[in-house]
Automatic annotation (TrEMBL):
GO function terms (MF aspect): hydrolase activity
Transmembrane feature ranges: none
Keywords: Chemotaxis, Hydrolase
Record's keyword annotation contains Hydrolase: yes
Signal peptide bounds: none
CheC-like protein domain: residues covered: 8-43
Protein's name in the database: Chemotaxis protein CheC
InterPro entries per UniProt: CheC (IPR007597), CheC-like_sf (IPR028976), CheZ_family_phosphatases (IPR050992)
Highest taxon of source: Bacteria
Organism of origin: endosymbiont of Escarpia spicata
GO aspect biological process, one term: chemotaxis
Length: 201
């Protein structure tokens, strides 16, 4: 299985930090409170172990917004919210007292909009850093077992998982941002990073 050097991991983490910083700023403006970010983690695992690598069980129920992107590197950008957190985020967004049933009805639309803004901000930041252009498909909402949502139509293979946790400071609602790329995309991504590092040297 492909492995990353420590230098490559550090560079990827730093770039994700920049991208997610832009995304967190956008989310902070939407909810009117500070968004706390964790240190990014970078790992390459078999696709079947993706849920475990993110820190969730395969059967854990999550709400997710997935956005497929293509360009010089490609993959799936996802926002994942453990059960219950997604509804609380919708409540924080709408800033209105609503019944759980009403919030659940609005969950898909509200989270898809949040996902669109956050994922595009993060991916757009990476594209700007590389002086590149990424193309995004429309975000899709999904709810179900984490293992099913992270599964790929093609089955096996290895994926690079970039994970960053974010938490709304006041309401203590959190989720994960992940970028999942197959090995060919990872190699293309690393080539971009190494070119960027050479230009910065």
């Amino acid at each position: 299985m492909m492995e990353l050097s420590e230098l490559q991991e550090d560079a990827i983490s730093e770039l994700l930090n920049i991208g997610m910083g832009t995304a967190a700023s956008a989310l902070s403006q939407m909810v009117g409170e500070e968004v706390m970010l964790s240190v990014p983690s970078v790992t390459i695992v078999p696709r079947s172990e993706a849920a475990q690598a993110i820190g969730l069980g395969k059967d854990d129920q999550v709400s997710a917004v997935r956005e497929h992107f293509t360009g010089s590197f490609w993959g799936d950008a996802m926002l994942l919210f453990p059960e219950g957190n997604s509804v609380e985020l919708v409540r924080a967004l709408l800033k209105e007292e609503m019944t759980l049933e009403m919030l659940s009805e609005m969950e898909q639309e509200a989270l898809t909009e949040v996902g669109n803004i956050i994922l595009n901000a993060c991916l757009g930041s990476l594209a700007n850093i590389f002086g590149d252009e990424l193309h995004y498909e429309m975000p899709e909402f999904a709810h179900g077992a984490c293992g099913m949502i992270l599964a790929d139509d093609k089955g096996g293979g290895s994926v690079l998982i970039l994970r960053m946790d974010f938490t709304l400071q006041k309401t203590n609602v959190g989720g994960f941002l992940t970028l999942m790329m197959d090995v060919d995309s990872v190699q293309a991504f690393i080539a971009q990073i190494e070119q960027f590092m050479q230009e910065m040297a």
